[in-house]
Amino acid sequence: MSEDIIFPIAHPYTANRINWMHGQEKALLVQEQQILMVAEEVPLALVYNGIDYAVMMVTPHDINNFILGFSFTEDIISSFVDLRQIQVTAEPDGLRADIRISAAAMRKVLARTRRPIAGRTGCGICGSDMESITNRKKCGVVGKQPDIGAVHKALENLRDHQVLNKGVGMLHAAAWCQSDGHILHIREDVGRHNALDKLIGHGLQNQVNFTEGFCFLTSRCSYEMAAKAIAAGMSAVVSLSAPTALAVRTARAAGLVLISPARATGMYVVSPAQ
């Protein structure tokens, strides 16, 4: 499962920056040309044993982690051993991942309706049919509320760990933190669902214990984010932005501790430990 960065993470573009200079009767507009680093996103075609499954828009980095995490949270594979081989190649307009999976995993691919459209960057379930969402496998976790001091510590240090985002400012991150708030692992992507899938994939490949510690998200926590965290067996999720109502109901039903939104000035525990 060798992995190469085939595309750059960001590209420089010239742009006219417009500044509003206040302090006068009328605001003074000042323009200057600057270089703006813009995050890259590329289509990644996921092909399981020769069967096209989906096309996802991703940041071209940690692709193997994403494929593993996506395959697991989509309930295609049950464990790391179900994924036999990944071969990523460059296409004229993106990437193609030829993924070899076990016979049991392939039966799941063949039994469900294939996604009819491409998965957009901002949505983890775009293209799914209604039945695949409503009949999603339900599972529970043992929620553990992290120490608030540990959450604050992770919040203070999170930006420093976003290596890819430096100079770009538009990549989401999903980080796994120890119980004391120390950030152990982090994955970044232009799509928030992709970042979480990458973190989960890394955890599966490296036997990360998702029951001890908490996941920190730089994005809002939607239903899909909560569902992915529950599928991975995480005990707690903290997100910078607010949750959706369905995410709260999903977390409470499964026992997942959800702290959202979390800011330097305070945070909300919307799904406490049962």
UniProtKB/TrEMBL annotation:
Keyword set includes Isomerase: no
Swiss-Prot/TrEMBL keywords: Cytoplasm, Molybdenum cofactor biosynthesis, Transferase
A family per Pfam: FdhD-NarQ
Classification via Gene3D superfamilies: 3.10.20.10, Cytidine Deaminase, domain 2
GO molecular function: sulfur carrier activity; sulfurtransferase activity
Chief localisation class: cytoplasm
GO-annotated biological processes: Mo-molybdopterin cofactor biosynthetic process
Domain of life: Bacteria
GO cellular component: cytoplasm
Catalytic residues in the record: C123
Family: Belongs to the FdhD family.
Matching PANTHER family: FORMATE DEHYDROGENASE (PTHR30592), SULFUR CARRIER PROTEIN FDHD (PTHR30592:SF1)
Name of the protein this chain belongs to: Sulfur carrier protein FdhD
